[in-house]
Amino acid sequence: MLPTPTTKAGREGLDALLARPGKALIGLDFDGTLAPIVADPERARAHPRALPALAALAPKVAAVAVITGRPAEVAVRNGGFADVPGLEHLVVLGHYGAERWDARSGELTAPEPHPGVAAVRAELPGLLDGSGTWVEEKGRAVAVHTRRAADPQAAFEALREPLTDLATRHGLIVEPGRMVLELRPPGMDKGVALSEFAREIGAESVLYGGDDLGDLPAYSAVDTLRAAGTPGLLVCSGSDEVTELRERADLVVDGPEGVVELLAALANRIG
């Protein structure tokens, strides 16, 4: 059964999606939303039931967009999205929308990397020495993970200011997340990516599901769309590490398991 959103705006968003699913956009984060959070991001994989649920739902809506800070090709690989029947309406917007992979064609489009990324990558070893952190290479960004440190939260707080200073010197910004600080180029975020794609496909309703601070711009984009007359539903893939999304969401589900159940329920309800 479909869960009921706790807000009036959320219920209106769900009603609009169900009334005209062929005009609906389903936007989803990857890590923590479609895939459980793990200590090593390279080992993150989509929930075992995510692909069947997406393959059942995607043909019934205008599009499914996986919007992630990861490189698009990494999200495609870790999600297992390539060559899956039923996912022709799926796109992956990687690096917060700077990259795009289309399941129908298998094509990936991406701009040249920002020069500041190479500059901060060269300076990070000296800055992080002895911190117990781990650096994830993301091509057009670098992410410093503190989850493996002796005190992950203390390491996160201690590194936030020096990493922000480093990023600023090289024309980058810092995107904080669940025990991770990502240094990336400015100008794109999940809200921009969601808004532009919704406009491109002429979406008449939008669902967005996320779990982390990087998803807040997408939440704000849905709020803006709703104010302009496009109904929307905000879904939080619940966790105890981030409360900001839970407080703003129309519907809170139990992590990736709950997200998958919601997607499957939507597919069944649409028929």
Give the N-to-C terminal Cα separation.
13 Å
What share of the residues lie within helices? Answer: 25-40%
Query: What structural class do the secondary elements suggest?
Result: alpha/beta
Count the strands? 12
User: Can you tell me the residue ranges where pLDDT is under 50 for at least 5 consecutive residues?
Assistant: none
Overall mean pLDDT score? 94
* SSE run: HEHEHEEEHEEHEEHEHEHEH
- What's the Cα radius of gyration? 18 Å
Count of DSSP helices? 9
Strand content: 15-25%
Cross-sheet strand order for the largest sheet: 5-4-3-2-1-10-11-12
Give your account of this protein's structure:
The longest helix has 18 residues. Helices cover 39% and strands 20% of the residues. The strands form two sheets. An eight-stranded mixed β-sheet has the order 5-4-3-2-1-10-11-12, with helices on both faces. Strands 6-7-9-8 form a four-stranded antiparallel β-sheet, covered by helices on one side. It is an alpha/beta fold and 271 residues long. It is globular and about 55 Å long.
